[in-house]
Amino acid sequence: MFESQASMGEPSNEDLSSTDDVRTDAPLAYAKYVTFDQPLPLERGGELPEVRCCYETWGTLNDDASNAVLVCHAVSGDSHAARHDEDDQPGWWDGLIGPGLPIDTDRLFVVCPNVLGGCRGSTGPGDADPTSPDGTPYGANFPRITIGDIVEAQKLLADHLGIRQWRAVVGGSLGGHQVLQWINRYPDAAKTCIAIATSPRLNSQALGFDVIARNAIQTDPHYAGGQYYDKDQRPDTGLAIARMLGHITYLSVEAMEAKFDPDRHDPRQIASQFEQRFSIGSYLAHQGQKFTTRFDANSYVTLSMAMDLFDLGGTRLKLMETFDEATCDFLLISFSSDWLFPPAQSREIVNALTALDKRVTYA
């Protein structure tokens, strides 16, 4: 699935650089791990026998655990939202998390878990299937999970950390879906819900992009039915194409024209099998290939499907039912040039909350 231009860690219209340029698959030096050995029932049936959660924290939890903020990442993200010190790797939200920054780690205890189904430490398709006699990875047999299942895994982490109520839950794109699901399932779980560039469900156009992305991955000759982990080659071509498509969805027409039109016929040459006739092609080839060095194709399929299945309601009445019991303040942020998560979808949530007389701010 694809993050909008306002997604966590993705570029704005004014800056088409991507955090992919500095993100790698290097070990996460500050990652913490906890394994919950009880089965996790899944929303669409079945269960995971156990769940491992990889997460990172910044700041200090106060005595009554009232200063905790949950940061939920987008599809291509991980637990490393921000640097921990000057020697640490860059995070995907360095400009927002840290001492004196909007999410101020001098005052707040920030928690960012890698999502269930991901590929950066939490239980996902690349892990050994406990039901397999020879420890074969789940691969394409990883259970079909939902945003609700991701939230349930995060709830286990919150309980483990002794956090009864979040000071805030915040996220964009897929992360925004998570924070909305938190409030739907646990109406008093947070004092503030901040949903950025997201929606109550994907529109049909966004679903169509996901279908294309999954088709690109699953028809790659090296996909091997999802069991490619012990192969010499992986479905990197399909994954790179999926990522290229993703980049297009969060760049506005205006931003792309400003970036690529001046040197349209003078692309930067890189080592790539992909077309580079135009400057936009060179850029997409670079971003697609870079992505394959740090992300797993099965996780992309798993998380994009979870995003597609997410549906809090397509009408004001349904959304009012969804958020009727919510007790938190809401902040919804959208961007006029965002055509993956258009502002109209955020306004649908705002209108439903306003009709319920909830405390909501829209920007």
Give a verbal description of the structure.
With 363 residues, this protein is of the alpha/beta class. It has a domain at 19-202 and 311-362: Rossmann fold (3-Layer(aba) Sandwich). It is 31% helix and 13% strand. It is built from nine helices and twelve strands. The protein has helices at 147-161, 174-185, 204-218, 236-249, 253-260, 279-292, 297-309, 316-323, 343-355; strands at 32-36, 40-41, 47-48, 51-58, 68-72, 97-98, 103-104, 109-113, 168-172, 192-196, 329-333, 360-362. An eight-stranded mixed sheet has the order 1-4-8-5-9-10-11-12, covered by helices on one side. Helix 1 (147-161) crosses helix 2 (174-185), helix 3 runs antiparallel to helix 7 (297-309) and helix 4 packs across helix 6 (279-292).
Characteristics of this structure?
Homoserine O-acetyltransferase, disordered N terminus, Rossmann fold, 13% strand, 31% helix, alpha/beta, 12 strands, 363 residues, AB_hydrolase_1, 8-stranded mixed beta sheet, globular
Identify low-pLDDT runs.
1-16
Distance between the termini: 24 Å
CATH topology of the domain at 19-202 and 311-362: Rossmann fold
Topology as a string of helices (H) and strands (E): EEEEEEEEHEHEHHHHHHEHE
What's the alpha carbon Rg, rounded to whole Å?
Answer: 20 Å
The largest pleated sheet is described as: 8 strands, mixed
The count of strands amounts to 12
What is the topology, as strand order, of the major beta sheet?
1-4-8-5-9-10-11-12
CATH architecture type of the domain at 19-202 and 311-362: 3-Layer(aba) Sandwich
Task: Spell out the CATH superfamily of the domain at 19-202 and 311-362.
Answer: Alpha/Beta hydrolase fold, catalytic domain
Mean pLDDT: 92
Number of helices: 9
SSE class: alpha/beta
CATH class call of the domain at 19-202 and 311-362: Alpha Beta
Helix content: 25-40%
GO biological process, one term: homoserine metabolic process
Organism: Rhodopirellula europaea 6C
Domain AB hydrolase-1: 67-353
Protein name: Homoserine O-acetyltransferase
